[in-house]
Amino acid sequence: MSTQIPALVLGGSGYVAGELLRLIAAHPNFTLAGVMSASQPGELVGKSFPHLAHIFGTSRFKSQEQIIEGLGKVSRWALFCAAPHGAAAPLVDSVLTAAEQAGTDMRAVDISADYRFADAAAYEAVYKLAHGAPRRLTEFTCAVPEHLKTAPTAHVAHPGCFATAILLASVPLLKLGLVRPTLFVSGVTGSTGSGRKPIAGTHHPLRHSDLYSYSALAHRHVPEVRALALAATGLEADFSFVPHSGPFARGIHVTVQGELESPLDTPAVITALRRFYADCPFVHVLNTAPRVKDVVASNFAHLSAAANGRTVAVMCVLDNLTKGAAGGALQWMNRLFGLPETTGLTAPAPGWT
C-alpha cells in the first residue's frame, strides 16, 4: 500500500497519545492529520511533548468540532482514541457518526476501557459509570493481537497494559492445558501507567526508591483479563492479581504462577511457549529471566518461565506505553488496513534507559 492514510488522535495530550504521535511520525503509511485535546485546543502540540516539537512544528491541538469538520475531505481515516475511560465512548461515537454521515471509511482503535466489554452492564459493573455509547459495543472486538489474528469487526478495543502482559503469559498455559485454571499474578508497573496528571502514586518523592502494592486482589482490570482469557482459550479461569507500583517511569513486569496439570520441567515449558508464539513477531521467549530495560520504548514483549514439576511461573515484560497501549493499538490498526502488522513498529528498545 503506497498511499498515505490520514490518522486522527483523540485525547491527545496524555502519555499514551504522546507515544502514538511518536510512532505515527515514523510510520510509512499513516500520516497525522489531527490531534484533539478537550483541555488544550489551540495549544502547540510541542508544548505538551517537547521531544516531538521538532517533528510537529506548528501543529496545534484541535477541538472536537475541528476534527469532525474535515472528515469529508478524505475517503478513509484511521482513528486512535487515548481519552480516559468514560470520556472515550461518546467521543469515539461522535467521530464515527460524523464519518458515516460524510460517507468515509473510518477504522477505530480505542485504548481506553470503554469498548473492552461485550455489553454495557459488564462495563458499568466494573467502572460504576453508565456506558457512553452502548449501541457501538458490537462494532468493537477486544483482544491481544497475538491471540486473535483477524478482528471480525471494523473497530478494535486494545486491552490495557497489565491485561496485555498477564494474557501473554497466561493464555498459552491455559490453552495448551498445562495448568489448572487458577492463576496467581504479581505485577509491577512504572509511573506512566497512572497517567499524566500528578497524583500521590506518581509523585517522584513518594515513588522513588520504593515498591508497594495497591488494589491487591481487587484491581479493576481483572474482569477484563478473565473475559479475554475465556475468549482466547474457552476456559473460565480465576486470576488472583496483586499489582505493585515500581520506582521507574516505563515498563511492566508480571509473574503468573499456576499448578501444573502434569509434571513439566523448565525447558519443556519454554519450548511450549516458544512454539505457541512462533508466528508472533513481537513476542520473544527467552531462556533467561526477562528484563524491563530490554523492551522499554519498543513494541516487543519478552517471556520466560520456570517449572519444578508441580508449579510453573511465567514472567513477561513489556512497555506499558508501547506494547501495552500505543504500539499495540498501531499493530491492530496496521491489520485493519491490510498492512503487515509489524509496519512502523520494529525499532528495538534503546537499552540502558
Account of the protein in words:
The chain has helices at residues 15-25, 45-48, 53-56, 64-69, 88-102, 120-127, 161-175, 204-207, 222-233, 266-276, 322-336, and strands at residues 5-10, 30-35, 76-81, 105-110, 140-142, 155-157, 182-189, 212-213, 238-245, 252-259, 283-285, 301-307, 311-318. Strand 3, helix 5 (88-102) and strand 4 (105-110) form a beta-alpha-beta unit. It has 353 residues and is of the alpha/beta class. The strands form two sheets. A seven-stranded mixed beta sheet has the order 8-9-7-10-13-12-11. Strands 2-1-3-4-6-5 form a six-stranded parallel beta sheet, with helices on both faces. The mean pLDDT is 96. It folds into two domains: 5-142, NAD(P)-binding Rossmann-like Domain (Rossmann fold); 162-320, Dihydrodipicolinate Reductase, domain 2 (2-Layer Sandwich), CATH 3.30.360.10.
Kindly list the characteristics that best describe this protein.
353 residues, 2 domains, alpha/beta, seven-stranded mixed β-sheet, Rossmann fold, globular, 13 strands, 11 helices, Dihydrodipicolinate Reductase, domain 2, six-stranded parallel β-sheet
